[in-house]
Amino acid sequence: MTISVNAIKPHIGGIIDVSPDRLLDDETIEAVRRELEMRGVLVFPQINVSDELQLAFTDRLGDRVNFTRQVPGSDAETPDVYKITLDRRLNSEPDYVLGTFFWHIDGITIDQPLPKATVLSARRLSDTGGATEFANLYAAWDHLPDDEKREYEGLTVIHCVEAAVRPVHGHPSEERRARYKAMAAVMEQPLVWTHDDGRKSLLLGTHADGIVGMPGAHGRALLARLQQWAAQPDFVYTHKWQEGDLVIWNNQGLMHRVVPYTDEGRVMHRTTIAGKERPGVAADPAKVDRIYQVA
């Protein structure tokens, strides 16, 4: 069997056509590992995997990790499969799903190695919205001017769940804020991540709440500019789901978001591959306080 990968765009995305019974073959797994590093996000059109096959595929690529056990909908039917839905019967608190309408990296506010990759399968779709956009943070770094690269290396950024869901609620209640803090850590991550293989990428997303050592407004303005830079069309692939699609992306080198939808019938199943690299550390509270001070 020969695996062919068709590029979607020069800087991001590839399509793999393979039958479900060959998904776990050594040749398929080798191709996925290789192309995931090159293309960032891979699409298996309408392959229609079961939870069991999706978990087996995840396990062939690495150790699985489940970092959303405290989130409503997690493990709704199958252990380690997170069901993403706005269905109130399964998800009584949709903040986590609504927060995915904004650019983010999975697991970046957890004090553990950053998940290597995310696997997502489409079980039921929304009538409108619901596409997923992916932005290549390796390409965003590679194409920055050299003077900006020199300026940004060495900077660190505060990431927190509260920032990630701020666009959802604006000013959440103290009770909500306490729940957010219980779900995750406040992390200090490098703005420019030098990976173990020597490649570099930016680390960005709505959860990025300020730059250590900069006044809050200055740091957030820079983060907003860089997020816009990383989300330019050349670096972004928008996947318009078909029922049965399976998508895997390099969570350590891409940020992603979903196009807003309101349909409670949309259901996606997610599994996650653990990473070995831990770019950041739990943030020093004093550093966090300083980014909120008015200059």
From TrEMBL:
InterPro entries: TauD-like_sf, TauD/TfdA-like, TfdA_dioxygenase
UniProt xrefs under PANTHER family: (3R)-3-[(CARBOXYMETHYL)AMINO]FATTY ACID OXYGENASE_DECARBOXYLASE, DIOXYGENASE RV0097-RELATED
UniProt keyword list: Dioxygenase, Iron, Metal-binding, Oxidoreductase
Pfam families: TauD (PF02668)
Natural source organism: Novosphingobium panipatense
Descriptive protein name: Taurine dioxygenase, alpha-ketoglutarate-dependent
MF (Gene Ontology): dioxygenase activity
Family according to the record: Belongs to the TfdA dioxygenase family.
Domain (TauD/TfdA-like) ranges: 6-272
Domain of life where this protein originates: Bacteria
